[in-house]
Amino acid sequence: MCSLEIMQNQSFVTEFVFLGLSQNPHIGRIVFIIFLFLYIATVCGNLLIVVTVVNCPALLGSPMYFFLAYLCFLEACVTSVSAPKMIIDCLYEKKTISFGGCMTQIFAAHFFSGAELLVLTAMAFDRYVAICKPLHYTTIMNPRLCGILIGVAWTGGFLHSIIQILFTFQLPFCGPNVIDHFMCDLFPLLKLACTDSHVFGLFVVANSGFFCILIFSMLLVSYGVILFSLRNHSTEGQRKALSTCGSHITVVILFFVPCIFEYARPPTSFSYDKLVEMFYTVLTPFLNPLIYAFRNKEVKNAMRKLWNK
Predict the structure, then answer these.
(1) Which of 27-41, 146-160, 254-268 has the highest mean pLDDT?
(2) Are 13 and 179 in contact (CB under 8 A)?
């Protein structure tokens, strides 16, 4: 009730209208088919990895695969925040979302993305310990620490998202209500506020953009240290480490580069933001299982055993 009262007091707008990916109905039907396939494949692929890890004690007991299962679950959640609505809207000329639905979509997108950012950081820390401190790996990366890191990821994602959504609730929206996007996001929404939102825009840049740049820089430095330390390893050890780290670095780049482009800039929106957001919310989660897991021998063997059962 309190949330509804806040929304009614702060806004005359009860719904927003998306322009979507295209206004052409023929293109809309093609986009519908393509992205429906991508969405189903993304959710099934990521959840398959989650089920495989959970049902294989050898994988679940490994911190690397423990974090991988959470990463895949979060990828499925991130794409489910916006993709189903975008896909259905392709079949309709008027694409609307309620005010409450818009706020919920923003909160969920930043919640899951924030948690995913911290899970990727935990995975990088796990690889650093495994390669740079192998003799202490089992002592440092114990189940208790892994649980704490996941708890920090969920808590960090929640705090990151709730702070932004509470500020957004304070903005008045009295019209127009047309968003040149396929989903609700902060910068397109700020353009519609009936007040000067420049200060809040700078807050978004600091809370999302600067945070992404900071974590991304830390991850690049950590992987630089890891790669430098590989010079003392055997050829076989170097090959395995490079394979794992290469996959993880690819996933990190696919996640952080669009985020930095979206939020680490002056608070405004551009015409190609939709393409970047589409890549970030649909294509990256689709590619993640292909890059990180399906070419991993241990994961593939576990899948075969699960299939045989």
Answers:
(1) 146-160
(2) no
